[in-house]
Write a structure and sequence with these properties.
With about 150 residues, this protein is an alpha+beta fold. The chain contains 5 helices and 4 strands, in the order E-E-H-E-E-H-H-H-H. It has 2 domains: about 1-80, P-loop containing nucleotide triphosphate hydrolases (Rossmann fold); about 95-145, no CATH class.
Length: about 150
Amino acid sequence: MIQVRHLTKVYPDGTRALDDVSVDIQDGEFVSIIGLSGAGKSTFLRCLNGLVQPTQGSIKIDGQEVAGASEHTLRLVRKKMGFIFQQFNLVTRLNVLQNVLTGRLGYRSTHSGLLGLFAVSDRQIALDYIQRVGLAEKVFTRASHLSGGQQ
């Protein structure tokens, strides 16, 4: 569960990106964040995963406070979520499956990750998500050969 209470972010130049935002997102719930350019959508998401520290407020993911958390704690929290940023930086020489598996690197040893060794369960999780987004037929297609929308 994601629990946000009274989240506010004011940047050093005085820009108020978020103002007293509170929301609960239940496990398994799908949520869309919609707004005009500059409305604070990206700032909100970056606060959720600890890339941006809020000016005030509380963010809890599965009961773990994110705001002000240590790097170790943030790594543990980030393992529970996935983000695709506007500049998502796919590795163009890797295929779809390999790119999705990079999201599982936090669960592998450094050695396994460097060698591209993933457990069967990791591969199954990746394949399930690839199927959910309608790209099962592209699983072995290099990212450089995907359309912009498919990427």
